[in-house]
Amino acid sequence: MATEYVFISDLHMGGDEQLTTLDFEAELLEFLADLEARGGDVELIINGDAFGLWEYAEVTGPAKLERVIEDHPRVFDQLRATGEVIDITLIPGNHDYDLACYPEHAERLAAFNVTLEPEIAITREVDVDGVDGTPQIWIEHGQQHDTNNRMPDWGNPDALPVGYFIVQRIVDTAGRYSDRASGDWLRDIQSVTPMEEIPRWLLSNYFYREMSPYLRAIVVPLLLFFNITLLYLFGTVLEVTGILPAGLFTDNPVVHALGIADIVLEIIVTINLVIIAVLLLLAVPLWFFRRDLGHTLERFGVALSGIRVGQGDEPFLHAARETLEANPDVCVYVYGHTHRASVTRWGDRVVVNTGTWLKKLQHVETRFSRLPGIYVPSFRLNYVRIFAEEDRVVVEYEEVETDQPRDLTRFQRLIARRPPPKEPIPARTVIDPDGSLEVPDTDAALEEGPERKPASDGGDGDAHTTDSDRPNGRGRP
Question: Which helix (H) or strand (E) is 203 found in, with range?
Fold first, then answer.
């Protein structure tokens, strides 16, 4: 039994072509080296998706892990060195589900001092003084609570969920074609969550990165003046009906005084008026066409109405509630998978989401409403420490300092609004293992909507996660 447990997850190392790039390699190496230098009775637990094995299309079986090792030798060398000093344990997630399917993976990882436990969930004990029973930590990746990624037959390499085929068709393809894009942005497709955002993300990057600059120079003024066109059209109608006096919108002397700028403005307004007229003419038949096409696709089973790829954290909180109620000795429930780091307190029990080390993309609107939104990148490299402190269990959330990516173009940085601030994740949460269990009714939370907030040391947070965008100043272990 270790005296301290350190958790990380969702590194997603590996993948064809550009997906093999590891943006946080330097930070990961330093994190592992710091654990090695500190030593002690510590166990590092990587609770799923350490590797992106689904992202390989050209190799199968154990050869996928060999590719990861070949592509990231420095990481595996450091794992071997760190594993000589502390215990390192790895459980499979969905993206590295292959680890649960081939026994040789355990032997291969053991060569790097990494112990593979090919289980859906594991537990660890916390040695707390003066407590009846031994407090436990429940650890899982969480894919079994995701309808699109749960494994129908754990350990069977041929029993794959729908999420596997989505990754193979979309994510792997994006990685292989990423070098053809301007700025290599396509490889960040793994950072788009939920996956329903992918079409809007593609449109945004096409507009700001791939569109011909000459075409964009024409389109941008049209979009910027679209609202002015609507105002002009509305004002003209009011003038014609006599509600407003003539000359405010049509034949305005102030506008005419602009000279050539007036001519340019009139051309833009005229083009926009034509576009509005065409859209109004097509709106009704296109609505009927879309409705009929949707019904046809559903009839043939090509499209399923109501299915969502991104499910939020609700299913995982349901699972946490059931686990905590059924296992009174479990004081901390740890999961990953959703890439949304959080520490949520329920009475004297804590639910932890270990987040991700991948780049995060947050959609923000522009300063001009008609321009496509922008996906602002950031990193949230985090880890969680759980240890005993006299007769209590302590959960500490810490973030690794890192340079934030500057992947946006100059134009994007100029027009993007500032992302809304996130509630900080509590840096330290203390649990009395003999205390009460106040698990919220997550069914009621879903009905009440996002305003319902769980109790936490960090004050008011999101209803299901308390996600942090910025370091909390605690540094490295």
Answer: helix 198-205
